[in-house]
Write a structure and sequence with these properties.
The strands form six sheets. The chain has a seven-stranded mixed sheet with strand order 7-6-5-3-4-8-9, with helices on both faces. It has 17 helices and 25 strands. Helix content is 30%, strand content 23%. The N and C termini lie far apart (62 Å). The chain binds adenosine monophosphate.
Length: 559
């Protein structure tokens, strides 16, 4: 028998799952609800809708059209929220530009994504000035002065607020196919250039629905309609975990902190009554330290932690101050959310039981299939002990790396997305990340490619062999360290290995986070059976924490 499909009247509205529809109910139920930007600006959802129309008009006036890529380089702001909606709603593709990559990498991502219009915060003017000559496809830049007076750069077509104020709010958005691309951004891979991932309207709408209070879990606070939301993950990174879309769909009050400044974040939390945020562990530590210094009350603040493991000690630190701390798991390729922690059924309600459950990587959110498999794609036993790679299927996973069929094939080997995260899973679906197959190190939420650093250091006089590995760090989650075999008679120093890295930083080739703050010397490198450096053995041997005071570059970058 052939499949049967529902009859539909010619009059029936064929509802596309497009991002604009996330606004439908919110504009009715929450027209007067507020969006707040730092201590500078507040407006209602009704005004948000008008500002979205104005942004679409001003972009069109600058030559934007369906299918075009439009890049944003900004801190977490109401402007970014406007772009999250306006750009996809006009049928264009929003590139959330990772401004923490090196200048050469930022230029690469803009060229690769064919970005033609850029919205740029003044803090990134020097970066844009440096790379514009190598980005010939960019035909218009809108300057974001963020409340400051001053001259616009010569290359800017105008200032965001001024252009917005002059543009009509009545942009005629039209319906289109839900499978149209909505967003793209780049993730730093193990080798070579950053890799582009992209997401359609349908994928982001389904992600938004599934991330909304995923378990209806009445035993733990979640994102309800009376919460006040403030993101503390960059909006350039995986749609700030998709929560701005969730918060807007629900019509809840939203607070955008701009460039992260701990004191301002705490002021906003107090004055605006923020109850729901999410961040990487490094940012949470920064907030705890700032709160302690000024005696701020953090009780009742729900903080979802992801991007790196939530340690039990950080969970305790937050819980001791009255916060609700819970971990989630996902990655750039997965939009990002795959799993979120929840209390175990039948748990005894003790703090120890909560901590054990809420610091894992989580259980799959609705519509996500997760398997933990061996190399032959056989499921390992769901016993909480056997390790394997997490592979997954969900409606919102990137279908390929842009223009990179080989990597895309490897990502999707056997029809399952390979995360390269090694984990255990138990009978109730609780996942615990144990290791990583990818040769990348994640520090303060940013990736560093160990192979690139090894290549750069390898030619240094006095160094016979080098390996770069990530070791756990109490503040940055991980930091890179170099393990070197010195040439005969040489005593290697940190300066020696950092010199070629500093040159690469100065040349804009690698990120400042890559500078090392520790080296270890060995007589010989441990090797695997096939003669490769045994990274796992090195990680086991050197996995002790390094001092929390890391390089100034990193401290500066997350602040
Ligand atoms: P990104 O693509 O930059 O968002 O990084 C995703 C990666 O961060 C994952 O593949 C994991 O390696 C790591 N990660 C994310 N969440 C967690 C978590 N809860 N515990 C441990 N590692 C995590």
């Amino acid at each position: 028998m052939p499949l049967r499909f529902a009859d539909h009247s010619e009059e029936a509205y064929r509802f596309p799952l497009t991002i604009g529809h996330l606004l439908d109910a919110a504009l009715v139920t929450s027209a007067a609800q507020e969006i707040v930007y730092r201590d500078q600006l507040r407006f209602t959802y009704a005004e948000l809708r008008r500002r979205i129309g104005r942004l679409a008009t001003l972009l069109t006036d600058l030559g934007a059209e369906e299918g075009m890529t439009i890049g944003v380089m900004d801190w977490d702001s109401h402007r970014y929220l406007e772009a999250y909606f306006a750009v996809p709603m006009m049928g264009a593709v929003l590139q959330t530009v990772n401004v923490r990559l090196s200048p050469a990498q930022v230029a690469y991502t803009l060229n690769h994504a064919s970005a033609e219009i850029l919205l740029v915060h003044r803090d990134f003017f020097p970066l844009v000035e440096a790379i514009l000559p190598s980005c010939p496809k960019v035909k218009a830049v809108v300057a974001i002065m963020d409340g400051e007076a001053g001259e616009l750069p010569a290359y800017a077509k105008g200032e965001y607020e001024a252009l917005s104020a002059a543009a009509s709010p009545d942009f005629a958005f039209r319906d289109f196919d839900e499978n149209a691309l909505a967003t793209t951004f780049y993730t730093t891979g193990t080798t070579g250039n950053p890799k582009g991932v992209s997401f359609t309207h349908r994928q982001l709408v389904l992600h938004t629905l599934a991330c909304n209070a995923p378990f209806g879990d009445t035993r733990h606070p979640g994102l309800g309609v009376d919460e006040v939301y403030m993101p503390l993950t960059p909006m350039f990174h995986v749609h700030a975990w998709g929560i701005p879309y969730v918060a807007t769909m629900l019509g809840i009050k939203q607070v955008y902190p701009g460039r992260y400044e701990p004191d301002l974040i705490l002021d906003l939390r107090e004055t605006e009554g923020v109850t729901f945020s999410h961040c990487v562990p490094t940012i949470m530590q920064m907030i705890l330290a700032a709160a302690d210094a000024r005696g701020s009350d953090l009780s009742g603040w729900l903080m979802t932690i992801g991007g790196a493991a939530l340690t039990q000690s950080l969970w305790r630190e937050g819980t001791r101050r009255g916060m609700h701390v819970v971990a989630g798991y996902g990655m750039s390729e997965t939009a990002p959310t795959l799993a979120l922690c929840r209390r175990r059924f039948g748990a005894d309600g003790s703090e120890e039981a909560d901590m054990a459950a809420l610091t894992m990587a989580g259980v799959p959110v609705p519509l996500v299939s997760i398997r933990v498999v061996d190399e032959a794609m056989n499921d390992v036993p769901a016993d909480g002990r056997s390790r394997g790679e997490i592979v997954t299927r969900a409606p919102w996973l990137t279908q390929s790396y842009t223009g990179d069929p080989d990597s895309s094939k490897a990502l999707w080997r056997g029809g399952w997305l390979h995360t390269q995260d090694v984990a255990t899973i138990d009978a109730e679906g609780y996942i615990q990340i144990k290791d990583r197959l990818k040769d990348v190190i994640k520090t303060g939420g940013e990736w560093i490619c160990s192979l690139t650093l090894e290549d750069l250091i390898a030619g240094t006089d006095g160094i016979a062999e080098v390996a770069v590995i990530g070791v756990p760090d109490p503040r940055w989650s991980e930091r890179p360290i170099a393990i070197v075999v010195p040439a005969a008679g040489v005593v290697p120093t940190l300066e020696m290995v950092n010199a070629p890295l500093q040159r690469a930083v100065d040349a804009g080739e690698i990120s400042r986070f890559a500078l090392l703050d520790r080296i270890e010397t060995v007589d010989a490198m441990p090797k695997t059976s096939v003669g490769k450096i045994d990274q796992k053995a090195l990680r086991t041997r050197f996995a002790t924490g390094v001092p929390a005071e890391a390089s100034g570059a990193v401290a500066d970058a997350v602040a």
